[in-house]
Design brief:
The protein contains seven helices and eleven strands. With about 210 residues, it is an alpha+beta fold. It is globular.
Length: about 210
């Protein structure tokens, strides 16, 4: 689909931005998402690489999943219900490219994203314990190692990414608690699909 873009250099041009992609038909797109190159467009005027965000449906037939990507700028509106989309048969909503890449890393590791989001909730409480003020911290799953799961914390310190590790056996313990947790807050909000994310707790924060 043709989209009109305006670069920082004020050059206006059109670029093809797909409304849907199929990772089965175009497997290279998965790597582009993980590398942060998904839908990047180079300005023909100044040569700067732009990363515009538009709604995109991402089909993953190998894992039998369909993701719906919502632009980061629409996060608050979507969570508040003022921005709506026809999600169709969507398994997971993600907001922003970082969340899309994270979901793919989770599935590549063979993990249940619901359990990963619960772990992120516990980690978020731990890193914010004793912190003063409204610090915005985001935690992302990075990878699974032999005996641990590795997460990255963004926002703890300026221009730094914190590395957090938890024992891999937490997955088994929390998997057995999913049904119970779904009946309790704040876990019910985190696990309520299709937006399964600890960030669902922050839907009433500023635009």
């Amino acid at each position: 689909m043709k989209r009109k873009l305006v670069c920082f250099c004020e050059h206006a041009f059109e670029a093809d931005i797909p409304e849907a992609v199929d990772l089965g038909e175009e497997p290279a797109i998965e790597e582009a998402i993980l590398q942060g190159d998904f839908l990047s467009v180079r300005c023909p005027g100044c040569g700067k690489l732009l990363k515009p965000e538009y709604p995109v449906r991402v089909q993953d037939p190998e894992r039998r999943l369909a993701y719906f990507l919502i632009p980061e700028l629409e996060r608050s509106g979507f969570l508040r219900g003022t921005v709506r989309y026809d999600l169709g048969e969507t398994d997971r909503v993600v907001i922003g490219y970082d969340e899309l890449a994270e979901k793919i890393r989770i599935k590549r590791s063979g993990l249940d994203d619901r359990v990963v989001e619960l772990i992120k909730y516990y980690l978020l409480n731990k890193v914010l314990e004793g912190e003063e003020g409204d610090r915005e911290v985001r935690i992302f799953f990075s990878r699974a190692e032999d005996t641990s799961l590795v997460f990255h914390a963004v926002g703890l310190k300026e221009d730094e990414v914190g590395v957090l590790k938890v024992p891999a056996d937490m997955i088994g313990r929390l998997s057995g608690q999913l049904d119970e947790r779904r009946q309790q807050e704040p876990y019910a909000t985190i696990l309520r699909g299709p937006y399964v994310s600890v960030n669902a707790l922050f839907g009433e924060e500023g635009d």
